[in-house]
Amino acid sequence: MKVQVLGCSGAIAHGCRTTAFLLDDDVLVDAGTGVGDLPLDLMAGIDHVFITHAHLDHVAALPLMLDAVASGRLARGAGAIHVHALPETIQALRTHLFNGLIWPDFTGIPSTGNPLLVFEPLQVGDTWTDGRKTVEALPAVHSVPAVGYAAWGQGGAWVFSGDTGRNPAFWARVNQLPVAQLVIETAFSDREADLARRSQHLAPGTLSEELASIPPGARYPVCITHTKPAETELIMAEILRLDAASRHDIRWLQAGETFEF
Question: So what's the pLDDT on residue 245?
Answer without folding.
Answer: 83
